[in-house]
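Box 3.1 A note on notation
Throughout this textbook, protein chains are presented in two layers. The first layer is the amino acid sequence; the second is a token string describing backbone geometry. Keep the layers aligned when reading.
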Amino acid sequence: MEHAPASLPSAGKLWLVGAGPGDPELLTLRAARLLASADLVVHDGLVGAGVLALIPSHVERISVAKQRSRHTMRQDRINALIVREAQAGKQVVRLKGGDPFIFGRGGEELEAAREAGVACEVVPGITAAAGCAAQAGLPLTHRADASAVSFVAGQCKDLTDQDWSGLAGHGRTLVIYMGLATASAIADKLIADGVSPGLPVAVVERGTTAEARVLRTLLTDLGDLVARERVQSPALIVVGKVAARADALDCLGGPAAAASLKDISCDY
């Protein structure tokens, strides 16, 4: 009597998945399917609670949340963790806020997987700049105002040594991730590099969530605005004429959100 051959264990695999800017309804269909079928989800702190709630209870979760100057797990250890678990035969979802390749260190994790011979796929997500600005009614490009957009990280080393003169101003929009702690220095640096102190600025706090706020002011007031309004992370800073467009007044979906807008007359 012949016996059927024993089934081989399925090969492990790693997916780098973008969770979007916070609202679970902005998660892609593919990302949702992967969360439902994963053996392990390794997630960042910026992944929204609504997205995490979609993970079935039997799926193992590991949080590797990062905060300014304090990391639950260093990046090299995260790389080692996801590679090791995939090599053990698990279907591993590395779940990252926004898009994995926009300030998400997804490129480093992909390289680590490739070097270890681990199969890896990238599942794009809506990056915070696009998702949060759109929901707030702030068009990052506009035929009358901006034909170019730049994304920068506000926590870069040697911030004062960089030339930001070409990032904001006429015809351009600048979106700054992770810039709350350095908001005053960013404003000072932009002004020193020739950007008008009167350029409109918007701060989008907790975009796409029920706690979203949009605060608007001028570049020269950016640091003071962040301090007096006690803006909390995650938040984006949008610098450019698009920040002054009236659309932003009407797109947050409720009187409480509309009342939180601090609108200052802009002279540009």
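The two ends are 87 Å apart (CA to CA). Residues 1-9, 246-268 have pLDDT under 50 and may be disordered.
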